[in-house]
Amino acid sequence: MSEILVLHGPNLNLLGQREPEVYGQMTLSEINLRIKSAGDKLGLEVRTFQANGEGALIDALHESRDWASGAIFNPGGYTHTSVALRDAVAAVELPVIEVHISNVYARQDFRHRSLISPVCVGKISGFGWRSYLLGLQALAWIIEGAE
After folding, report:
1. Which fold has domain 2-144?
2. Predicted pLDDT at 110
3. Looking at 8, 62, 80, 100, which residue is catalytic?
4. 8 noted as active-site residue
5. Which residues of the chain fall short of a pLDDT of 70?
6. What pLDDT shows up at residue 16?
7. How far is CA 58 from the centre of its chain?
8. I want to staple 75 with a disulfide (CB 3.0 to 4.6 A). Which of 50, 79, 118, 138 is the partner?
């Protein structure tokens, strides 16, 4: 069974409370349960991790090199600012899919630019918490080598 890292960036621990009109009512714990359940159905073991600091996110990416077949990453606000996270994604040499709950292109202009996207195999945004499920399905296809 392939193992997958689902990495949640800053402020995602406040899901369900923070701007529910943008991010929905579901908590991060509820989303993680749904991601893990979907992973089981796809034959993937999912490990989730959330951190508000860049260093912890970078450490989680680095550690995933030893056990993961790929990662799904919602870098939150670091999407637009963190060269360090961009470099960590590139360094792990795993397929990484960038996900966002909201449609970043329907929001402020600064959210339209991602430093992370160029080193990811793909990006999914705008489908609420289901963006993670779409990312998981895409990662399963990549790991299987499906065309």
Report:
1. Rossmann fold (3.40.50)
2. 62
3. 100
4. no
5. 22, 106-108, 110-112, 146-147
6. 85
7. 13
8. 79
How many other C-beta atoms can be found within 10 angstroms of the C-beta atom of residue 34? 16
Q: Which of 138, 114, 146, 116 minimizes the C-alpha distance to 44?
A: 138
Residue 61 tokens read as: 């990416």
What does the alpha-carbon distance between residue 48 and residue 32 come to, in Å, rounded to a whole number? Answer: 7
3-state secondary structure of 112: helix
The two three-digit tokens of residue 87, written as one number: 């470099």
**Active-site position among 8, 23, 78, 132:** 23
Q: Helix H segments across 28-126?
A: 28-41, 54-64, 83-92
Residue 130 identity (one-letter amino acid) = R
For residue 91, the model assigns a pLDDT of 97
21: tokens are 């009109």
Q: Is 100 a catalytic residue?
A: yes
Classified as helix, coil or strand, 71 is: strand
pLDDT at position 103: 82
Q: How many CB atoms lie within 10 A of CB 4?
A: 29
What pTM did the predictor assign?
A: 0.92
